[in-house]
TrEMBL record:
<dbReference type="InterPro" id="IPR001073">
    <property type="entry name" value="C1q_dom"/>
</dbReference>
<feature type="signal peptide">
    <location>
        <begin position="1"/>
        <end position="21"/>
    </location>
</feature>
<dbReference type="InterPro" id="IPR050822">
    <property type="entry name" value="Cerebellin_Synaptic_Org"/>
</dbReference>
<feature type="domain" description="C1q">
    <location>
        <begin position="68"/>
        <end position="205"/>
    </location>
</feature>
<keyword id="KW-0732">Signal</keyword>
<keyword id="KW-0964">Secreted</keyword>
<dbReference type="Pfam" id="PF00386">
    <property type="entry name" value="C1q"/>
</dbReference>
<dbReference type="GO" id="GO:0005576">
    <property type="term" value="C:extracellular region"/>
</dbReference>
<protein>
    <recommendedName>
        <fullName>C1q domain-containing protein</fullName>
    </recommendedName>
</protein>
<dbReference type="InterPro" id="IPR008983">
    <property type="entry name" value="Tumour_necrosis_fac-like_dom"/>
</dbReference>
């Protein structure tokens, strides 16, 4: 009887598939080197992405700084740096060149030509002041490109005179603005800087 039972158990054990005896086998150890290689590759890619992101961020910051600098535009100038000078009369209208420039943010005003050049499209405000004496009248135009826009004029019998004007203009990039002295007129300036030309960007558009 014992022999038949043992034989039956052997037959049953032999019929069990290998897959069902997994619990009886020890699992194979994981490939730790493959995992390390994968982690290293991920870290290298992450570092590359960070470097690329930092470069893009630096480029964007530089662009914003440049745009901000372009939008910072303001200048003030007078005719003479020192001493005193009477400018005019001339046989024809003459562009005044304001040599003393205490403020020129954005470098849009050129002290060699007397011309302001708009660096960005926007609304700009300008003012100009003439000083003179009783020898002749003082008259001039603010000119946009080749168009006379606003004028100043003053004449009196005795003493010094002063006259001024101002306006706001919509300018495109590259538009120029300057002041012309009317023929036969005279303007006066000295170290007190009476005859001036100023402008600034109100806002870009």
């Amino acid at each position: 009887m014992k022999i038949s039972v043992s034989f039956t158990l052997l037959l049953l054990l032999g019929s069990v598939p290998a897959s069902e005896s997994v619990e009886c086998q020890q699992a194979s150890p994981p490939d730790i080197y493959a995992a390390l290689r994968e982690m290293t590759a991920s870290l290298v890619q992450l570092k590359a992405n960070m470097v690329t992101g930092q470069a893009q961020l630096k480029t964007e910051v530089n662009k914003l700084k440049q745009q901000l600098q372009v939008r910072q535009v303001a200048f003030s100038a007078s005719l003479v740096v020192e001493g005193e000078s009477r400018t005019g009369p001339f046989p024809s209208e003459t562009t005044l060149i304001y040599k003393y420039v205490p403020t020129n943010i954005g470098n849009a005003y050129n002290s060699n030509t007397g011309v302001f050049t708009a660096p960005v499209r926007g609304a700009y405000h300008f003012e100009w002041h003439f000083a003179g004496d009783n020898s002749r009248g003082s008259a001039g135009w603010l000119v946009k490109n080749s168009q006379k826009v606003f004028a100043v004029y003053e004449q009196q019998g005795t003493g010094f005179l002063g006259v001024s004007n101002g306006l706001t203009l919509l300018l495109e990039v590259g538009d120029v603005v300057f002041v012309r002295l009317v023929a036969t007129s005279v303007v006066f300036d000295n170290f007190n800087h009476h005859t001036t030309f100023s402008g600034h960007l109100l806002f870009p558009m």
